Amino acid sequence: MDAFDDLYAANAKFAQNFGGSELTGRAARGLAVVTCMDSRIDPLGLLGLKPGDAKILRNAGARVTDDVLRTLVLAVYVLGVERVLVMPHTDCGMAKVTDPDVHALTSARGVDTRSLEFHTVRDQSEALRHDLTRIRTSPFLPADMPVAGAIYDVRTGLLKPSDY
Ligand SMILES: [Zn+2]
After folding, report:
1. 96 CA distance to ligand 1 middle (Å)
2. N or C: which end of the chain has fewer CB within 10 A?
3. Nearest 5 degrees, angle CA 87-CA 88-CA 92?
4. How many angstroms is it from 91 CA to the middle of ligand 1?
5. Please, which pLDDT band fits residue 164 given cuts at 50, 70 and 90?
6. Could you tell me the distance, in angstroms and rounded to a whole number, from the CA of residue 120 to the centre of ligand 1?
7. If you measure from the C-alpha of residue 17 to the centroid of ligand 1, how many angstroms do you get, rounded to a whole number?
8. DSSP string for residues in the chain
């Protein structure tokens, strides 16, 4: 059995009720959200959005990496984004390990990951402040673009806006 058969079967059903789409690739609500890959997060649902509304950028820890900055530049200048919300979350796995922890875990499986930076999070507030600053001070992004941070509580479903 193919490891992906369940997904292809589900998609065949999905497409049966898919009436086509008039949407373009531009973000209809002018929004980009940077959030974590955590499987408990439904970015569209928790923000009252629907497909077509926003660009969703996800990675481990909702970190503003070089690739996130690259993607935001494209989102702003090509795809209609005018505001950015950075949204880490409570109980994040990235805040429970350090880079040396991860290197030790992979090393135990015979894999050397020391050339990778995992951007693990020692202090979530500090990491969010750092990541917001990276966007706000990027020479490639509009200086007056609204940029906000908020932490999503995976237990209550509530967003807590940050002061940074
Ligand atoms: Zn996470």
Report:
1. 10
2. N
3. 160
4. 7
5. confident
6. 10
7. 32
8. --TTHHHHHHHHHHHHT-------SS-TT-EEEEEE--TT--HHHHTT--TTSEEEEEETTS---HHHHHHHHHHHHHS---EEEEE-BTT-GGGS--HHHHHHHHHHTT---TT------S-HHHHHHHHHHHHHT-TTS-TT--EEEEEE-TTT--EEE---
d(CA 95, ligand 1 centre) in Å: 8
16 C-alpha vs ligand 1 centroid, how far in Å?
33
More confident position, 19 or 48: 48
Query: From ligand 1's centre to the CA of 90, what distance in Å?
Result: 8
pLDDT digits 0-9 by tens, 138-154: 999 999 999 999 999 99
Q: How far is the CA of 153 from the centre of ligand 1 (A)?
A: 11
Alpha-carbon span 8 to 13, nearest angstrom: 9
CA 135 / ligand 1 centre spacing (Å): 20
Tell whether the model's pLDDT for residue 118 goes beyond 80: yes
